[in-house]
Amino acid sequence: MSSLFISDLHLAGERPAITDLFLHFTKTIAPRAQALFILGDLFEYWIGDDNTDDALAAVVADVLKRLSSSGVKVFLMQGNRDVLLGPGFADQSGAELIDDPTLINLYGRPTLLTHGDALCIEDIEYQKFREYARSPMHQQQFLTQSLETRRERMLQMRAQSEMSKQKKDLEIMDVTTSAVDQLLRNHHYPNIIHGHTHRPARHQHDVDGHRCERWVLTDWYQTGGYLLCDASGCYSHKLSQ
Asked: With contact defined as beta carbons under 8 Å apart, do 29 and 6 qualify?
C-alpha cells in the first residue's frame, strides 16, 4: 500500500517530452499505488474547463481516467498556474478536486497537503496577485471572456511572471519559515507535503516541542519525480526521459 505525490509538471504543448514522461509514469508506476495526489500546476496554464478543444488536456484526462478506473484514487489540487482547473476537468479525469490545504491521514501520520505558494509570504507582489487570482469574482469575470481572449491574457501573465522572477531574490520566492511554523500550529503539527518552489528537499521543523517533516516535491521541467509514501515513511524518486 503506497501513495504517490507529484506537482509542478507544467504540462504544455511545447514540452512534449515531459508529457510523454508523465504518460509513462501513469501507465507504469502509478497503477501500483493506492492513490495519486497531484498538488498543483499539472498544466502550465489553464483558461477554463470549457476549453474542450485542448488536445493535451484531453490526453491527460484520458490517462487519469484510465488510472482511476483501474482502482487508483486520483486527487487533484489547483496550483498557481492552473488555479481555474475545476470540477469539469476533475469529472472528465475521474479525479477528486481537493482544497488547498487538505489534511489527510497518511498511513497513521497526519499530513497536510498544499501547493505551497501561500507559504511564500515575503514575496508581497506575488501574494497580492495570488489573492486576485483566487477571488471568485475575478475568476468569474475572466471566464466570461472568449477562449481566445483568455488564452492571450494568460500568455501575457506568464510572460510578466517570468520577467518579474528575474528581478527577485531567490530567497524571497521560497517559503518563509515563520509561515510554515504557523501552518503547523494551526493544524496541530502534521507533516507537510507541497510543491511550487521547485526546490525538492526534506526539511525538519521543530515547533513548540513537536518534530515535523516537510517534503518539497520536484518540478518536471528538465526531468520528473515523485514522492512515494507508505507505512514505513516517505521516499523521493527521480524519473528520467
From this structure: no
Residue 227: what residue type?
Answer: L
Total domains in the fold of the chain: 1
- In the predicted structure, residue 42 carries a pLDDT above the cut 80: yes
Asked whether residue 191 carries a pLDDT value surpassing 80, the answer given is yes
CA angle 180, 224, 196 (to 5 degrees): 25
**Helix residue spans in the chain (DSSP H):** 16-28, 55-69, 87-93, 124-133, 136-143, 147-166, 177-186
What one-character-per-residue DSSP string does 200-227 give?
Answer: -EEEEEEETTEEEEEEEPPPSSSSEEEE
Range of the domain at 77: 2-239
Within 10 Å of residue 154's Cβ, how many Cβ atoms?
A: 18
Domain with residue 24: its CATH number is: 3.60.21.10
CA distance 76 to 90: 7
